[in-house]
Amino acid sequence: MRRSRFMLSIFWTVVMLAILSEKSTGGAIFRVDTTGDVGKYISMVAPQSISRADLFPVFISYYDATNGNLKCAEGFEMFSIQNVDTIGDVGMWTSIGIQTVIKDSLYSPHISYYDSTNGDLKYVHWNGTQWDIEKVDTTGNVGLYTSLKLDTLNYPHISYYDATNGDLKYASWNGTQWIIEKVDTAGDVGQYSSLYKEDRYGIAYYDATNGDLKYAYRTGTQWIIGKADTAGNVGQYCSLSKVTNNYVIAYYDVTNGDLKKAVFNGSSWITSILDSVGDVGMFACCNDGMITYYDKTGGVLKWGNTSSGGGACDFGDVGGYTSCGEDGYAMDVAYYDFTNKDLKWVYTTMGMEESQNPQFTFRNAKLEILKNPFIKSTTVSYCVPDKSNISLRLYDISGSCVKTLADGEKEAGSYSVTLNAKELKTGIYFVKLSADNYKLTKKLIVMK
To answer: Hey, where are the domains in the chain?
Structure first.
């Protein structure tokens, strides 16, 4: 059971039990917030826990698109949720950090975000009694693609995009005031910024002018700028982390629809493909060897590591705006459900020391259709809970089988198949997944 480190009666105004969606081996999937269109522009952090039996809560900042508010959730299965900022349309491109300890051993969230009403970069933190909100940069349309880290004094540092000038900017608090710097001004640069701090401050970001992945790091008072990948249109949805002794960037290859990674070996960036099955890699998040991303073709959330990519762990057009983390004893992912417009969260208690590529073995079979009704094509995704002989067939309204989509023995895992409307007439069909101990059916509508 995770311990809350907040004075909940003071801090939070709404407490809700997350809806359990699916149990899996060593973990579970929950709907954290279902009130309206919620869960875009997610940022999540999981404080380091003391033991497996005494896990601390996760903290998730996100955007409420229905009301245009910045929200924050804290908890584990039982989540406490609050509207943090409700003035104007605020809360896109959030990034959250946690102050290690404040008085009475309580955690304090720090959040950077975009104020789209005024085009400003804003920042908020919990001071132990209330939220302190302030504007950091108001010069032009600024504050998109924020990424926040706290230093050893718990002072915030924020990388972000200046849409007016097409620049990458950086704001840091020195204890008295905000210091604003322009990091890169060469063309339209700075979208998808990802800030990382260990031995130095580094930023991965996208060069929209050239379609390149760039990286900047600070040495003294100067920023050193270089290119990590220039092969095609690459660098969107980039996420910077450090794995063992190497800096690693996970990112999306727009040209090929692949998830790629770039590893700095001390002198240059070495790039490789992590996943190329379908259109994959958007909303990539890399954190200490763990990686999550969206499979657009299958409409699934994928989860794995920076060595071999990942496998599906949730279905039904889910996996947008992923944010992942691990606290030494559990691994967590917060993400957006496109179908239901909900904020979801999945965790496994299998720590990184036990599995560098956690596989979610669901107790139940699953069958999902990405686009329904559809005109040109759709993707049928299904999950097999254990090794078995299965059949996946398409039937028309009269009950006649018109197409076999899959047949034979399948290992436990997730699969998907593309269905083309050119092979079918307009009308109602049924997709049936069958095995020895289960049968699932979904209605499918073809429109031409």
So the answer is: 8-348, 366-446
CB 337 within 8 A of CB 39: yes
Q: Which CATH architecture has domain 366-446?
A: Sandwich (2.60)
Cis preceding linkage at 373, omega within 30: yes
Please give the average pLDDT of every successive group of 10 residues along the chain, which has 448 residues: 40 51 61 95 80 66 98 87 96 92 67 98 91 97 97 95 98 97 98 91 97 96 96 98 91 97 94 93 92 90 79 83 79 92 82 42 68 89 82 90 92 82 91 84 88
pTM metric for this prediction = 0.81
Q: Distances from the Cα of 118 to the Cαs of 37, 110, 139, 251, 390, in angstroms?
A: 22, 21, 10, 30, 55
Q: Of the candidates 266, 244, 159, which has an alpha carbon nearest to the alpha carbon of residue 206?
A: 159
Spell out the residues 6+ positions from residue 26 whose beta carbon is closer than 8 angstroms to its own.
348, 349, 350, 358
Q: Of 2.30.110.10, 2.120.10.70, 2.70.50.60, 3.40.50.720, which CATH number belongs to 8-348?
A: 2.120.10.70
3-class SS string, the chain:
CCCCCCCHHHHCCEEEECEEEEEECCEEEEEEECCCCEEEEEEEECCCCCECCECCCEEEEEEECCCCEEEEEEEECEEEEEEEECCCCEEEEEEEEEEEEEHHHEEEEEEEEEECCCCEEEEEEECCCCEEEEEEECCCCEEEEEEEEECCCCCEEEEEEECCCCEEEEEEECCCCEEEEEEECCCCEEEEEEEEECCCEEEEEEECCCCEEEEEEEECCEEEEEEEECCCCEEEEEEEEEECCEEEEEEEECCCCEEEEEEECCCCEEEEEEECCCCEEEEEEEECCEEEEEECCCCEEEEEECCCEEEEEECCCEEEEEEEEECCCCEEEEEEECCCCEEEEEEECCCCCCCCCCCCCECCCEEEECCCCECCEEEEEEEECCCEEEEEEEEECCCCEEEEEEEEEECCEEEEEEEEHHHCCCEEEEEEEECCCCEEEEEEEECC
